[in-house]
Amino acid sequence: xxHIDKNILRIVRIKKTREETPSVKTLIFDDYLSHNAKxxxxxxxxxxxxxxxxxSVMISNSQGEAAITIRKKGLASTSLFNLVEGETxxxxxxxxxxxxxxxxxxxxxLIGGGTGLVPLVRxxxxxxxxxxxxxxxxxxxxxxxxxxxxxxxxxMQDRQFELLIATDDGSIGFKGYPxxxxxxxxxxxxKIDMVYTCGPELMMKGVYEIISKKTIQLEASVExxxxxxxxxxxxxxxxxxxxxxxxxxxxxxxxxxLSEFGRxxxxxxxxxxxx
Length: 275
What we know:
7-stranded mixed β-sheet, 6-stranded antiparallel β-sheet, 21% helix, alpha/beta
């Protein structure tokens, strides 16, 4: 098999696009390395003449395909969102560590929101032959911003699980934050032994504060601004860790030592700012 260096930029052509919501789109392309990425790993994605940004690897149904899911917000993400079939992007990676799938944990819970669902969906798909996930909590601002629900149901169609939805405005599911649902569940269900989370950092901070009081283990995929993805530029530092090489996935013990988690982040200029 031909060896491919993940650090060398690969130009790929967008085969298909799928609109998840008016502001969220999934781009599908052929790439062997990305197709085989572990749950939680990310790509450095180059938008020609614009910028390079980190994105979690999404799943695709066909052999050899990979995907990324983007929410249009800034220059780079909006430029990526606006690309159509046939146009090209550059990718490096996959980079970073991944969520663990230790068979010792029997009752696992997933909680995520927004495009933070991407690595969690990949984790579900990676473990689709097991029944270890008992509860999945999905958060969104409103029903119109909710996505991946049908995909999650399809992946989990042969497994017993509970899917709970929380929206800020109550337009579907529970009115409130997903962390409120989590708090109720872990109080009532002593069998939960592992929680995986990815999404807005303030949400994950709330997840950590709930889980820190329990014997339940936790893994969180942390997002930071990145310029290199390989530990050189230090743009993604959180305390003394670099998210690109030490993460993006951090466990409960590691998070307990990250005083900046949920409090501070570095902006595009590298200046420390608060949430």
